[in-house]
Amino acid sequence: MIPHLLRCFCATAFLLAAPDAQANCRQALALGLDVSGSVDSAEYHMQLNGLAAALENQSVMNALFQPGAAPVHLAVYEWSGPGHQNLIVPWVPITSHMALTDLTTTLRHHTRPKMDVSTGLGPAMLFGAELLHFQPNCWRWTLDMSGDGIANTGPLPRDLSLPDHITLNALVIGPGQTRPHGEPLEETTALVAYFEARVIRGADAFVEVANGFEDYEAAMTRKLLRELEGLSLVQAHD
Question: Are 170 and 207 within 8 A, CB to CB?
């Protein structure tokens, strides 16, 4: 079960709503990876290795390591059915290249645990939101949900209310095929529409699309750059 999340949120969300000029982290970024039954062994490792490679992309590292800026805090977890969320990387401040290397090494060497095969997207969102609850001293709180299908067990995303200060972005993983002229398949279009309508939250929230698990690294790189560079622009303006 998800531990008393909503009661915690109601009592404390207002304390986290405004950016703090003295915050010791620029952004708390929690990344949730779909490991439900639709994800086979090869696809599982494409996610982990793709995330590791995206974090090591030079442009992403430039965004992470801004001179004089407070660090970004990262956490990574995997999810499937209700009650099946596994924390792969607990919160770590990315204060050095060594810290980043330790994180990506953990991702590449992680072994898939036995988990439920259903797609509990709602409980996974609550789990990620609770993770962010334990990072109060940040400028921004972002939850990233990767997934290749809609929720098929509850609570469902449409029934959830998350704290207003959290931005929830999504990385939709399509079937890896396109129509003759490169247009996405109907399955991909429908999945994107589902995540846009039911999952993402926040004024700046967006959906990034991977054309199959083979495209996961490139899509994750685009998403991280959009999130991290967007935060940089806000701070530069301030």
Answer: yes
Residue 49 burial by CB count (10 A; 0-12/13-18/19+): exposed, middle or buried?
A: middle
Q: Give me the helix-helix angle, 5-12 and 121-133, nearest 10°.
A: 40
State the Cα–Cα distance between residues 58 and 56, nearest whole angstrom.
6
Provide the 8-state DSSP code for 181: T
Exposure string (b/e) for 120-150, b if CB count within 10 Å is 16 or more? bbbbbbbbbbbbbbebeebbbbbbbbbbbbe
**Cis amide leading into 157 (omega within 30):** no
Question: In this predicted model, what pLDDT tens digit does every residue of 215-227 receive, in sequence order?
Answer: 999 999 999 999 9
**8/170 Cα distance (integer angstroms):** 24
pLDDT in tens, 137-151: 999 999 999 999 999
Instruction: Measure the CA angle with vertex 171, ends 218 and 71; round to 5°.
Output: 75
Question: 179-183 long-range CB contacts below 8 Å, 24 or more apart?
Answer: none
What tokens does 52 get? 């590791």
| CA distance readout (Å), 39 to 11, 166, 182, 226 | 37, 27, 24, 26
Instruction: Report DSSP state, residue 80.
Output: -
